[in-house]
Amino acid sequence: MADPTGKDQFQRIREATDGETPYVLHPENNDLFVRTGKQIIASCQLTISLDLWLNELSAMMKEVHDWAGHRADRIRTCYCVPQGPSIVFFFSPQSNQFDFDLADELAAFNLHLRKFNIGMAEVRQVPWREFDRFVNPTSSRWLYGEQFRPFGAVAT
Amino acid sequence: MASSSGHLAQWQHNRELIPLIPRRYTDWIVTVSFYTALHAVDYLLSKDGVSTIVDHRSRNSVLLTTNKYNFICKRYLQLFDLSQTVRYLAEPAAWVPFNKIESDVFGRYLYPIEESVRRLSGNTEAPQAPITIDPA
């Protein structure tokens, strides 16, 4: 709603003039923060960047899920694991052998994933039978297909 | 990063080992094939003046983000993936049977990577003879 006085009702912190000015941020728990105008602006920019990154990641995961779903006859499972600066997608084929045709498609898909601005994304193909040698199913994100249970594990 | 001539020599060196590996060791045929391809790629990157390669991740990143290397990238990353997996498996020959070595590991990955490196580097003398695995 417009201010009837015609004046801007917001307090403003301008980096050019208020960048070095200290501000006290006073939360309800009285755990005070003292930050300069420049630090406050940088913190807001970082939050926006993080939100954008998470949006990109979420969109990429959806695309990987859909991509795998269109190849359900050849893909048994897909998990996502952060490794260092990369996001790695582990696929197991329905076949017990390395699926060379699927690998071709995964390689092209890996290049396609560059459109997401999240840093480096990698794809791996690993055998279902030894899946947990490469992926810890409990600390990674299951994206598609069958959920892995270590062989010999008994469902409860 | 080593000199381009050093990578060229190691490319040839690793390649010469492949036919000496008995056919039942498909995991090591794949692994040596990968390191053959790696030195071919490093030869090309060195010729192109890329000096930022310090590990697999940095090499993969350059390949993934440089359009000139797209053809190599698609094949190299598959061979990388395969070699990173097969050497840790309890049953590697089940994952990559011997009948896939010449047709797929060499035919889809190693030879096309080498061919592309020869073309992009302009070095037609680089290794290219077909590899024949010891039948034993």
Description:
The complex is a heterodimer of chains A (156) and B (136). By secondary structure, chain A is α+β, with helices and mostly antiparallel strands. Chain A has helices at residues 15-18, 37-69, 100-112; strands spanning 22-25, 33-36, 75-83, 86-93, 120-125, 141-145. Chain A starts with 14 loop residues before the first helix and ends in an 11-residue tail after the last strand. Chain B has 136 residues and is mostly helical. The termini of chain B are far apart. Classes of the chains: A alpha+beta (156), B mainly alpha (136). The interface between A and B is medium-sized, with 26 and 27 residues.
What is the number of helices of chain A?
3
What summary fits the major beta sheet of chain A? 4 strands, mixed
As a whole number of angstroms, the C-alpha radius of gyration of chain B is 14 Å
Task: Indicate the radius of gyration of chain A in whole angstroms.
Answer: 24 Å
Assign the CATH class of the domain at 59-145 in chain A. Answer: Alpha Beta
In order across it, which strands form the biggest sheet of chain A? 5-4-3-6
Total helical elements of chain B:
6
Q: Give me the oligomer status.
A: heterodimer
What CATH calls the topology of the domain at 59-145 in chain A is Beta Polymerase, domain 2
Q: How does the SSE layout of this entry go?
A:
The complex is a heterodimer of chains A (156) and B (136).
Chain A: H1 15-18, E1 22-25, E2 33-36, H2 37-69, E3 75-83, E4 86-93, H3 100-112, E5 120-125, E6 141-145
Parallel strand pairs in A: 4-5
Antiparallel strand pairs in A: 1-2, 3-4, 3-6
Chain B: H1 4-17, H2 26-47, H3 56-65, H4 70-86, H5 92-95, H6 101-121
Helix pairs in contact in B: 1-2, 2-4, 2-6, 3-4, 4-6
